[in-house]
Design a protein that fits this description.
- The chain is about 5% helix and about 50% strand.
- The chain has one helix spanning about 105-110, and strands at about 1-5, 10, 15-25, 30-40, 45-50, 55-60, 65-70, 75-80, 90-100, 115-120, 125-129.
- A hairpin with a 4-residue loop joins strand 5 and strand 6.
- The protein has 1 helix and 11 strands.
- Strands 2, 4, 5, 6, 9, 10 and 11 form a 7-stranded mixed sheet that branches. Strands 1-3-8-7 form a 4-stranded antiparallel sheet, with no helix packed on it.
- It has about 130 residues and is mostly beta strands.
- It starts with a strand and ends with a strand.
- The chain is globular.
Amino acid sequence: VQLQASGGGLVQSGGSLRLSCAASGLRLDLHTVAWFRQAPGKEREWVACFVSSDATTYYETSVQGRFTIYSGNDKNTIYLQMNFLGPDDTAIYYCAVGSIHRGANQKVYVSDSGWYDYWGQGTQVTVSS
């Protein structure tokens, strides 16, 4: 299984980027896909996830309304559209893949990095002020 994260770069505050997570060796439409990020000197934090079984999405509070996670037409690429970026969004962004949690409190599980089995290599996002 390989996950290829791409799309990062340098953008001015208020700008936009779209990250991609392309998978090989498994079908993303049978899994949960999440984006995490890690800023310098900080712990990795969950950003958003896409539950492929019913296209449910969840977002961390600080990105709600600015970021959108969605599946590509090929069903094996997940995108993270990031708008209104600010310096606090500067981080390495990682995509991760895990199984689908079908019980209660789904968000609790899918926002935990321990839920995920496969991780991409990360893509750097830098937002200048």
